[in-house]
UniProtKB/TrEMBL annotation:
Protein name: Cupin domain-containing protein
Cited InterPro entries: Cupin_2, QDO-like, RmlC-like_jellyroll, RmlC_Cupin_sf
Segments forming domain Cupin type-2: 40-107
Signal peptide: none
């Protein structure tokens, strides 16, 4: 498996990859066994349903716009400049209810099966298949 080295831009993507996950663009920027960094755009009214990562911590840095996170029964609003940490094993959901596109850097550590999962669900339009494949890649939707 190749790993990222040196500079990378959103326009390039790691190994030229750009994914569309249920209509939303993700660009991998960095990938090693210990960490994965992606740029993600969340259009108005987009969301990622409640799920948990069995083997990774996930951190989002909101670069533009505003996102809402559901974590441990609380709703967290995060505007540009905010970092939100979502520890492994804790269910969480992401929502963009702002009416505008939000952009974030998404950091996952360790990488585990996350890179392979994102590549596998690229272009899929069936949420049930995305959920099914999540179970094969250590991501459990609840």
């Amino acid at each position: 498996m190749d790993f990222s080295k040196g500079p990378m831009t959103i326009g390039e993507g790691f190994q030229g990859q750009k994914w569309t996950i249920l209509g939303e663009p993700y660009v991998p920027l960095h990938m090693t066994p210990s960490s994965l960094l992606m740029h993600a755009e969340f259009g108005p009214d987009s969301f990622v349903p409640t799920h948990l990562h069995e083997t990774q911590d996930e951190t989002l840095y909101i670069m533009e716009g505003e996102m809402e996170f559901e974590l441990e029964g609380k709703t967290i609003k995060a505007a540009a400049g905010t970092t939100v940490t979502l520890p492994m094993g804790i269910p969480h959901a992401l929502h963009n209810r702002s009416g505008k596109t939000a952009r974030a850097l998404v950091f996952v550590s360790p990488t585990g099966k996350m890179y392979d999962y994102m590549a596998r669900i690229d272009g899929l339009s069936d949420p049930a298949e995305v959920v099914r494949l999540g179970a094969e890649h250590e991501i459990r939707f609840v």
